[in-house]
Specification:
It is built from 13 helices and 10 strands. It is an alpha/beta fold and about 325 residues long. The protein has 2 domains: about 220 residues, Rossmann fold; about 90 residues, 3-Layer(aba) Sandwich (Rossmann fold), CATH 3.40.50. The strands form 2 sheets. It has a 6-stranded mixed beta sheet with strand order 1-2-10-7-8-9, with helices on both faces. It is globular, with a radius of gyration of 18 Å.
């Protein structure tokens, strides 16, 4: 593992990314949710990445990666694969930097997300039955055409960009006992965790997974990338396998302090709470972290915790349940 892909070395890249992209992404606000922890004397906050441009934290990693392309690389365009949020981010960042994006999506992508990607000026290419199929097809197309492939999580500069959420968070809030982070491929967990371990080692990094889609969780448990079966989940932004050789396996293992799995019923309850009590329409993935806090609220009595509301791009399927 190189310095750039170790948790300790990644922290420097996260801060460099923060300085590089701060004028291109939104400084997202923090909301006080302490009513959720009142019975335990816990201060609870939410970092509102659902209010980020394009509706999720993914814009940070995409912007950090595309900003560093050479003029020749920009002229050829970029390729990526995505369930939606990363595709939106790459399409938006590419348009802002005057390069073309080709976004590969699987058959699992919500139709409205694919449409939004196309509306941002990107080409949408459909490939495969799941996100990993689309990812492999996108890599192959990029290699054949000489274009840069921008993965959703398996790239140190993408991970560093996602980690800028933590730089902002630790500046916005008092010392934290824990941060709850929804996890799919591990880019957000790895990037945020690297900065938290560097700047606030007392803070627990809590990875949150839907029980029905916990591939990286099982990979971490085994110490190797697994082809672990998934079931349908409301957290559609986190579905999909982990690419062989992904840097996020080692990074996530290095920064993770605790893992919490939540059921579909718990995710739905968190979505209901967010809409009823706060008027928020957040996506299923964002509700995973909230559900994980609610499930373990008594464990953080008297502390101060933050929940990352990672996105607000609801699929019609989830919206129809609310």
């Amino acid at each position: 593992m190189t310095a750039a892909t170790s948790a300790s070395g990644l922290a420097d890249s996260v801060f460099a990314a923060y300085q590089r992209i701060r004028g291109s992404v939104r400084l997202t606000p923090v909301e006080d949710l302490s009513a959720l922890g009142a019975s335990y004397g816990t201060r609870v906050f939410a970092k509102m990445e659902n209010l980020q441009l394009t509706g999720s934290f993914k814009l940070r990693g995409a912007t950090n990666r595309i900003t560093q392309l050479s003029a020749a690389e920009k002229s050829r365009g970029v390729v990526t694969a995505s369930n939606g949020n990363h595709g939106l981010a790459v399409a938006s960042a590419a348009a802002a930097m005057h390069t073309m994006a080709d976004v590969f999506v699987s058959s699992l992508v919500a139709p409205e997300r694919a449409q939004r990607i196309a509306e941002l000026g990107a080409k949408v290419t459909r490939a495969g039955e799941n996100p990993l199929d689309a990812e492999l097809a996108a890599r192959s197309a990029a290699e054949a055409s000489g274009r840069i492939y921008i993965p959703p999580y398996n790239d140190p500069q993408v991970v560093a960009g996602q980690g800028t959420v933590a730089v902002e968070l630790l500046e916005q809030l008092p010392p934290l006992d824990a941060v709850f982070i929804t996890t799919g491929g591990g880019g957000l967990l790895s990037g945020m965790g690297a900065w938290i371990k560097h700047s606030s080692p007392r803070t627990s990094v809590v990875g949150c997974w839907p029980f029905n889609s916990r591939v990286l969780y099982e990979c971490i448990r085994s110490g190797a990338v697994l082809d672990f079966p998934e079931q349908p989940t409301l957290s559609d932004s986190t579905v999909g396998g982990v690419e062989t050789g992904s840097i996020t396996l080692a990074l996530a293992r290095a920064v993770l302090d605790r893992s919490i799995l939540v059921s579909e019923e718990e995710i739905l309850a968190a979505l209901y709470w967010a809409r009823r009590e706060r008027g928020w329409l957040i996506e299923g993935a964002a509700a995973v972290a909230l559900a994980a806090y609610l499930k373990t609220a008594s464990d953080w009595a008297g502390g101060t915790v933050a929940v990352i509301v990672c996105g607000g791009n609801l699929s019609d399927r989830v919206l129809n349940l609310l």
